[in-house]
């Protein structure tokens, strides 16, 4: 367990995503609490009589439900192995186990249903994904209208995206070029008689299968659509290291064998921390030309309480780099908006008549243009 935690803590992909404002870090946590709740509430429940069974059941159900609110497609990929296991338990399990599985499902569905309320509040349609309000093609599925190509997303493109993401994971997962996958198969082999090991092993292929239906791959931040399997994969990798070192056997272990495996793992960790991780983090510096200088230029001229409509010259990233100036729930602070055309911009400015409204052009920094109402 400690070795698995060390692998996660040193993972370049995990560190890069944790430094972003994306939701993957929360979803990694929720995948872990779901897994722990499931194992404690269903798999290991008979051996832990002092743990109230209702506690892990509630934790697992609420975790899956919140994961559905955070990253809906990820919740499908993470939940699929547990769902398959749950169906098997409903058929073969005892009465207490069946009750626990059904309770988890109820908790998860009740929380996940709030996604429909959220989409209705944002778009006026409970079934409309707000992503499509920005990019109509940003949908899950195959055929015309799914993705940016004329013919739409295809099975061949899904194969290419999946293969590319997995190839990137060979490096970004632990910062061991071409070797990041090396210990997990050994760990699964060592734990092959344990049902929970196979449950953990199912997370990565399940996420890869589900995200094959999404038109875009992931490599800038590493294979981020699969990162929710990081905890499970790290447990299997740690088990593989322990098996190679002989720590899982009750018989006497060769000292040379143990020291050799330990030295190998330490060398790989040193390779990551000393070389791969610094270079990987450097790649993210100023990504999409986002930097503090462009943010500070606006901050120097903008009033503390104003509406500023940003008119990017080339890309939305010129707007994105300014967003840290406007806390998401602080109505008294500076408000930033992305231009949607002169008519919409004027309507927006009139909606905030209590504060001055300006146009801002990143191509001409340091200057605000007052919007006349």
Task: Give a verbal description of the structure.
The protein is mostly helical and 373 residues long. It is built from 17 helices and four strands. Helix 4 (54-70) runs parallel beside helix 6. It is globular. The N and C termini lie far apart (62 Å).
Break the fold down into its secondary structure elements and pairings.
Blueprint: H1 2-9, H2 12-18, H3 24-43, H4 54-70, H5 72-92, H6 95-112, H7 114-123, H8 131-134, H9 155-172, H10 184-190, H11 195-201, H12 203-211, H13 230-245, H14 255-284, H15 292-301, E1 307-310, H16 317-320, E2 335-338, H17 342-351, E3 357-360, E4 368-370
Parallel strand pairs: 1-2, 1-3
Antiparallel strand pairs: 3-4
Helix pairs in contact: 1-13, 3-4, 4-5, 4-6, 5-6, 5-12, 10-13
Compact summary:
This protein is mostly helical and about 375 residues long.
